[in-house]
# Entry
Amino acid sequence: MNESGRKTGKLVLASYPLIGMNKEVRDKILPDSDEGVEVLFISGDGDNMCPLADLAEVRKKMKAKSWLITVKGADHGMGLKPKDAVEKMRLYTGEAAAKWTNEEARQEAKTECVLRWDSHERKVVNEGWKSVE
# Structure
């Protein structure tokens, strides 16, 4: 329960700082999250503070159900090249997170999604939610 006495049902963790500046792993609270909590991670595949392989290991240990949106080419601050892609991608990931909070809009078995910037079309490409073994 949080300070107001309400139970947290959903968490959206964008660019979660899993690895600290001194290389310590900050995963203590994640495995202990209540299994009734649903967690969405949004992380760039170039995020050195949240390497996807490390995040995958943490997600396996979690009691809470989790989903992952991977942003191809993005760093910890969701920076992308070209620069004009950054704002559009950030807006898109925000919209994707908002849609994720709507339970009817997601499927339990499909837990990972990849977003990428199409430089030719100058738009975000959503590869869709997929099941991961």
Q: What stands out?
A: The chain has a mean pLDDT of 89. The chain has two helices and five strands. The helical segments are 52-61, 84-100.
